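Let's study my pick:
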Amino acid sequence: MKWARSLVALAATLTLTATGCRTGPTPPAGAPARSASVAAPSSPAGPAEITLAFAGDVHFADRTAGLLDNPATAFGSISSALSTADLAMVNLETAVTTRGTPEPKEFHFRAPASTYDAVKAAGVDVVSIANNHALDYGRVGLADTVEAAKAAGVPAVGAGVDAAAAYAPWITRINGTRIAFLAFSQVDELWSEWKATDTRAGIGMTRDLPRAVAAVRTARQQADVVVVYVHWGTEGNACPPDEARGFAGEMAEAGADIIVGTHAHLMLGDGWIGGTFVQYGLGNFLWWRDDAYSNDTGVLRVTLHGSKIVGTELMPALISRRTGQPQLAGGEDAARILREYANLRSCTGLAASPTD
């Protein structure tokens, strides 16, 4: 069951309600040492089952812009696949701002603050903003994006007022298991100008490898499970490039348990590096136009028992050509997507099962 939320001060201590639903503080987006703590009941049967849901790139532009007229229904029926998980995460690939100056690049995306209302209504608990559109309208736009997330009570990882914020994890506790979430971008467009530094707002970048590795190692010390969401890959290419594969290895060695990614506009394969589960590309999700490489998408569900990954599953979906909303697939469509998805592992270099 999706956990309930309450806006409280960051230092507040919350406990489970009698119904068994999680309540927790909503940490400021883009701030270091972000966490949500809850007490969990003891279980004589062992660790409780936890389900995490991940999906791909979300835009509110062109055909999807009008969906924000009613944020409560913006994601459509796919919300059930997100809200039934204990925690869900997507990549929010837009600046959330009405201000700023367009950066020197081809595509620019921005959306109003109601974007976060739509995200929450869909059952999404945390978003990555480490991508090649969070600074489309400069650092003014990024500041608005972070502040709007904070005001809405939606944790946003992967960017912030400086490197300390951009590389900080958001940590939550579910059924006694502490789970840390970080996000990075590997897209080369404007990366050196957009990267966060000690004195400049920006994005957590994979190419600042020492910082990225240190961030994961620090999160490993603070949490039982570490999740890394990465914006990487080559648009239109269903195989991860060497740079992505190398970074996945670095993250696994540093202590990441789950690595998921987007950016290629189509699905990429999944598998294992030792005991680390890697999903290289979840594709488009709530998508702004109908000329993408593929309308195949899905929701990845990862099941934990305590800190141990005990299952992974892709719930196949198709992006509606009319609305841009993803809808769970059935019948022949679902069978085809799952068959093609399984075949994508062959070029990832990943193992079919964990080896640790």
Remarks:
- Helices lie at 79-83, 114-121, 138-152, 163-166, 191-194, 209-222, 242-254, 331-343.
- Confidence is low (pLDDT under 50) at residues 3-33, 37-43.
